[in-house]
Amino acid sequence: MKTRSLARFSPLLVTALVLAAAGFAGAQEAAAAGGGAAPHSKSFFTVIKEGGWIMIPLFGFSVAMVWLIIDCSMRTGLKKLMPDEDLETLRDFFRSGDYVGAYQSTLERNSAFNNVARAGLINVGDGKAATEEGIVDAFAHEQSKVSTRISYLSVIGVCTPMVGLVGTVTGMIKAFDSLGAGNVAANTGTLAAAIGEVLIATASGLIVAIPAFMAFYFLRNRLIGNLAEVQSEIGNLFRKFPYHLAEGVHIGDQELYANSPNWVEGASTAAAGAPAL
Questions:
Q1: What does DSSP assign to residue 26?
Q2: To the nearest 10°, the Cα dihedral for 142, 9, 217, 167?
Q3: Residues 43-69: pLDDT tens digits?
Q4: Is 43 left (phi over 0), alpha (psi -120 to 50) or beta?
Q5: Which of 13, 146, 151, 208 is the most buried (most CB within 10 A)?
Q6: Closest Cα to residue 174, out of 193, 158, 156, 155?
Q7: Number of domains in the chain
């Protein structure tokens, strides 16, 4: 399953690598042209070193971005959110009217589909409105768990250009300080070379930000689409549920904290006698 998810996501990763290679190549050319000297090739690590200390946090951002892309691409897959086995198992239990068995089956695997279905089964004894409310709450919780992780890609996309700009600004401050300390005419070439080098930090920030934003929007839309499929299947399961026959029944082992007021005589005893499954 994971291999198929990564295969579907490989075009985005390839695009990110192509952008990275093109960006660093452009940065090398800019640095070489800024020096005013004869063109000479620079290794990848030389260019990274010329970017200064700011390349360290940018490298950390890039590692986090790759990890988030791989992790979220697996979490947002339809097979992960709603495994086929879980869907067929619950369909069989609902067809046979074995709702206790359906509840037990949702405990066997942690998936968004099972968690939402379990929330609905817990509340069937309280009526259709309570069941739908439980489903909506569980659905929102499952969506927030994944969308929160995806949103970190947006944070990376916003922050990395700013971090790269910080490196560029600090590098240019140093370059102009060194220029002011010597002969302006003699140091023009040195200044141009220094500016070309510090711009590597800005280019690197953009190289990380572009694939991060691409992955953010892709994964966000993928999550929305697949969760819509989950919501549709949950609705199909509960559409014809016999709520009138399950009134007062409690499915599951969750403790019900709210009881009848203790000043109402006999109410607590009557509530305690409600059927539980």
A1: H
A2: 110
A3: 766 767 766 788 889 999 999 999 999
A4: beta
A5: 208
A6: 193
A7: 1
Per the prediction, the chain carries an average pLDDT of 80
Q: Token pair of 173, please?
A: 């401050």
- What is the spatial distance between Cα 201 and Cα 218, in angstroms, rounded to a whole number? 26
End-to-end CA separation in angstroms for the chain: 35
Rounded distance between C-alpha atoms, residue 211 and residue 12, angstroms: 8
Domain-embedded: residue 261: no
Q: Copy the structure tokens of residue 276.
A: 């539980």
* Cα 155 from Cα 65, distance rounded (Å): 10
> How many whole angstroms separate alpha carbon 206 and alpha carbon 51?
13
Report which residue type is found at 6: L
Domain-located, residue 119: yes
Q: Which residue has the tokens 């700011």?
A: 54
Q: Is residue 74 part of a domain?
A: yes
Cα(68)–Cα(146) distance, integer angstroms: 11
Q: Is 127 inside a domain boundary?
A: yes
Q: What is the mean pLDDT of each run of 10 residues along the chain (277 residues)?
A: 44 45 48 46 68 85 96 95 95 94 93 95 92 95 95 96 88 74 60 72 92 97 96 94 87 72 62 54
Question: Which domain does 178 fall in, by range?
Answer: 2-241
Identify which of 86, 91, 92, 93 has the alpha carbon closest to the alpha carbon of residue 114.
86
